[in-house]
Amino acid sequence: MSTDPRAGEAGQYVDSEILQDLLSIRSSIDNIDAALVHLLAERFKATQRVGVLKAKHRLPPADPGREKAQIARLKQLAQDAQLDPDFAEKFLNFIIEEVIRHHQAISETSGGEPDPNAPFDWADHQ
């Protein structure tokens, strides 16, 4: 039985060799999760710049043609990576919805300039 908090409940039920394998895999998952967060932050920083440009030039927050192309591209990438393409589509749709919402806010509240007093929201940075 392990007292390592990273083991979770499994530490009570498996021998130490299996537990070490489990902890190693979980460590990899934790590293991947951290990388995903940082990549999403970078993506949202770029899309905030897109939102500012759209607002300055009075472009609509949504771009259905671009969104459709991005979804198709991401679904193909997912399929190539042996990831469920429907999951990839849902994930991108969630991001797109947040981006559009924040592009609308940029356009409506600041004439194209992000509000420096607004709280940070990762979705502002798509």
Descriptive keywords:
126 residues; mainly alpha; Chorismate Mutase Domain, subunit A; 3 helices; elongated; isomerase; CM_bact; EC 5.4.99.5
Question: Could you give a quick summary of the protein structure above?
Answer:
The chain has helices spanning 16-56, 64-80, 85-110.
Question: What CATH architecture label applies?
Answer: Up-down Bundle
Number of separate helices: 3
Q: In the CATH scheme, what's the topology name? A: Chorismate Mutase Domain, subunit A
Query: How would you classify the helix and strand content by structural class?
Result: mainly alpha
Largest sheet at a glance? none
Protein name: Chorismate mutase
Keywords: Isomerase
Enzyme class: isomerase
Region (Disordered): 106-126
Q: What does this protein structure show overall?
A:
This is Chorismate mutase. With 126 residues, the chain is mostly helical. It has one domain (8-125): Chorismate mutase (Chorismate Mutase Domain, subunit A). It has 3 helices and no strands. It has helices at residues 16-56, 64-80, 85-110. The longest helix is centred in the N-terminal third of the chain and has 41 residues, at 16-56. The protein is elongated and about 60 Å long.
Helix-strand layout with pairing:
Blueprint: H1 16-56, H2 64-80, H3 85-110
